Amino acid sequence: MHLTALSISTDFSNLQTTVSISNLYLESSVISEHPELAKNGWLVIDKPSGFTSFQIVKIIRKLYSIKKAGHAGTLDPLATGILPVALGEATKTIPYAMDTDKTYHFTVCWGDDRDTNDSDGSVIATSKKRPSEDSIINTLQNFKGKFAQVPPNYSAVKVDGQRAYKLAREEKPVQLKPRTVEVKSIKLLKILDPDHAEFCATTSKGFYVRSLARDLGLELGTFGHIVALRRSQVGTFYEKDSILLDSLLALEHSRDKFKALLPVERALDDIPALSLSESGADRLRCGQSVSVTEEASWLDEKPEKANELAYVTFNGKLLAIVTLQNNHLKPIRIFNL
Question: Does the N terminus or the C terminus of the chain have fewer Cβ atoms within 10 A?
Answer without folding.
Answer: N
